[in-house]
Specification:
alpha/beta
Length: 196
């Protein structure tokens, strides 16, 4: 089993990746008992952050193409990890993927839709999948319409078409942008549901 200091791990990576503003804004939406879906969880920085802030009074559904050993140290019995490539079931795409400090473009084919994995109320969905977000959202229409969760989605300016499509898709479902953290993490809420 891999041992590491969670606080050092989180602080180091969030300093490097400029995620502190996103975490601070996320904190304003956290409340006990929520279900947090962490898509592209990697080693579980956001999953761990949410669990620590809520003193483990939440449920985390963590999803990634690769099962990193660190994620098992973070999740409890009420949480779940899915090793899956989410999409709209028929998606194949070259994406930039970071795994064990070895970033590269690889061809991915989606194996599941989020709608097929989740059949419960969710409160927050965080997506950070290096350009794959739009396809994931297409496969999550039912979850988005039924749960109307807060969405935190990475939208790198260089993505242009993909980034515009994912934001336009969410707006078409009734969402609106309520905050942009760090210049690229968009917070979207279903209209008339935000009070933060």
């Amino acid at each position: 089993m891999i041992k590491y200091n969670r606080e050092d791990f989180i602080n180091y990576h969030w300093d490097i990746l400029c995620e502190k503003e996103t975490a601070e804004k996320l904190n304003s939406y956290l409340s006990p008992g929520i279900t947090f879906v962490d898509i592209g969880c990697q080693k579980g920085m956001y999953s761990n952050y949410v669990k620590q802030k809520l003193n483990n009074d939440c449920r985390v559904i963590a999803i990634d193409a690769v099962e990193h050993p660190e994620i098992k140290n973070i999740l409890s019995e009420k949480d779940v990890f899915y090793q899956a490539i989410l999409g709209d079931k028929q998606t194949t795409k070259n994406v930039f993927y970071r795994c064990d400090n070895n970033p590269k473009y690889i061809e991915l084919k989606s194996t599941h839709a989020l709608d097929d994995l989740i059949d419960e109320q969710v409160d927050i969905i965080k997506l950070d999948c290096d350009g794959w977000e739009y396809e994931i959202l297409l496969g999550a229409s039912r979850v988005l319409q039924e749960s109307r969760p807060l969405i935190i989605v990475e939208n790198i300016p260089e993505w242009k078409t993909e980034g515009r499509c994912q934001i336009e898709f969410l707006i078409s479902l009734g969402y609106e942008v309520v905050h942009i953290a760090g210049g690229y993490n968009y917070f979207l809420q279903f209209k008339n549901t935000h009070d933060n």
